[in-house]
Amino acid sequence: MRKLTDVLKSIADENRLRILLMLAESGEMNVSAIGDALGQSQPAVSHHLNQLRNAGLIEFRRDGKFNFYALNPTGLHELIDQLFPHGGPARIPLGGVEIAFKRK
């Protein structure tokens, strides 16, 4: 239950959700690029990234003095398993948008 709570808290923040969507779109970004896209300082972005990493939603690799962040490919599996225990594609309707989760 604690892990599920951490994941849900992480994605409940608008800026962290934007970061996840940017990483889903671009594949990989560094802190400076994320900060520029969000219009936020490096310390603020680093805080968001730390929250997402602690929740298991993103991972990073170091290249020289830069950290590059990407989605953790299995980061949402536990959440999906708990929310949709019967398997199959999971869909969450959000107003006029629907989020679909499907394991590869």
From TrEMBL:
Matching SUPFAM superfamilies, A to Z? Winged helix' DNA-binding domain
Q: Which InterPro entries match?
A: ArsR-like_HTH (IPR011991), HTH_ArsR_DNA-bd_dom (IPR001845), Metal_resp_trans_reg (IPR051011), WH-like_DNA-bd_sf (IPR036388), WH_DNA-bd_sf (IPR036390)
Q: Which UniProt keywords apply?
A: DNA-binding, Transcription, Transcription regulation
Domain HTH arsR-type per the UniProt entry, residue ranges: 1-91
Database matches in Gene3D superfamilies = Winged helix-like DNA-binding domain superfamily/Winged helix DNA-binding domain (1.10.10.10)
Q: Name one Pfam family in it.
A: HTH_5
This entry's Gene Ontology molecular function terms read: DNA binding; DNA-binding transcription factor activity
In terms of NCBIfam families, this protein maps to: HTH_metalloreg
Name recorded for this polypeptide: Transcriptional regulator
